[in-house]
Amino acid sequence: MQIALQEGLLPGDELAEKLDFAEELQIEGLEVAGRSRLYDHIEDYEKALSGRSIKIVSICGQETFDWLDPDISKRNASLAETRRQLEACGHFKAVGQIVPPIFGPPRIPDLSPLKDAIALEKDLLVELVKDLAAHAADHDTLLLLEPLNRYEQHLLRRQADGVEIIERAGQPAGVALLSDFFHMHIEETDTPEAFRQAGKHVAHVHMADNTRMQPGTGDIDWRAGLQALKDIGFSGYLAYECGIDGERREALRTSVKFVRETIAGLD
């Protein structure tokens, strides 16, 4: 397992300064914010990363989350944005783009007794995933579906919800699961078991403690969770998506050391 840090967590005013610090910590991966429109700044990132050991491994989110909006023009615009993000991921040989399919409550109307809103959303999402997964596979990357906690999303909340969509879509090569320790701590009754049940579908992991601060500052059982990831053969990136409690440089040094020592002590 390798460690990635989100660009926005790194101290420094310029990208080069941020990358210098990441490499000082021997960080392997950089996660870029979707709102930064990486696809419009490919040359800038290529220049900044040239000659460095760190590389872009994921894009987190995008500007719009309208896949499941009843307005087809909004859906199409959001899907087009996803495709561009996936193309940028492919360019940098990244694991993939992370997308929660919706925030908040359903937007599609309840059409009971035909189907309620959630059933309609799932049917639509399955068809969209088929198309986006094919686009991701064409660019040798992944669409990473992210379940969120109940306070942020109603549709995909547990790992099993994401797996359901992937399996209903036929388990295409271009889609996988983003598993987030913070959201799982809220929604799962047993995080290690949830990892084991999701198994091969887990392709990228977000890390934040139960307070949404850096790993090692709260009460999540990191050893148990990371052991489960090792048990299912996960060898990908553990990307920090969290707030920082304390002075940024020292807090990140301490947390990264904690995570590495935890991994080193696994069975």
Describe this entry's structure for a reader.
By secondary structure, this protein is α/β, with parallel strands linked by helices. The chain has one domain: Alpha-Beta Barrel (TIM Barrel), CATH 3.20.20. Helices cover 42% and strands 15% of the residues. It has nine helices and eight strands. It has helices spanning 15-24, 42-49, 72-91, 117-138, 159-168, 181-187, 191-198, 222-231, 248-264, and strands spanning 2-6, 29-33, 55-60, 96-99, 142-145, 175-180, 202-207, 237-240. The chain has an eight-stranded parallel barrel with strand order 1-2-3-4-5-6-7-8, surrounded by four helices. It is globular and about 55 Å long. The protein starts with a strand and ends with a helix. The mean pLDDT is 97.
Structure summarized in a few sentences:
This protein is of the alpha/beta class. Helices cover 42% and strands 15% of the residues. It has a single domain, classed as Alpha-Beta Barrel (TIM Barrel), CATH 3.20.20.150.
State the domain count: 1
SS summary, helix count: 9
Structural class: alpha/beta
Low-confidence stretches: none
H and E order: EHEHEHEHEHEHHEHEH
What CATH calls the topology is TIM Barrel
CATH superfamily: Divalent-metal-dependent TIM barrel enzymes
In whole angstroms, the N-to-C terminal distance is: 14 Å
Tell how many strands the DSSP assignment holds: 8
The CATH architecture: Alpha-Beta Barrel
Strand order of the largest sheet: 1-2-3-4-5-6-7-8
**Helix share bin:** 40-55%
| Rg calculated over all Cα atoms | 18 Å
What fraction strand?
5-15%
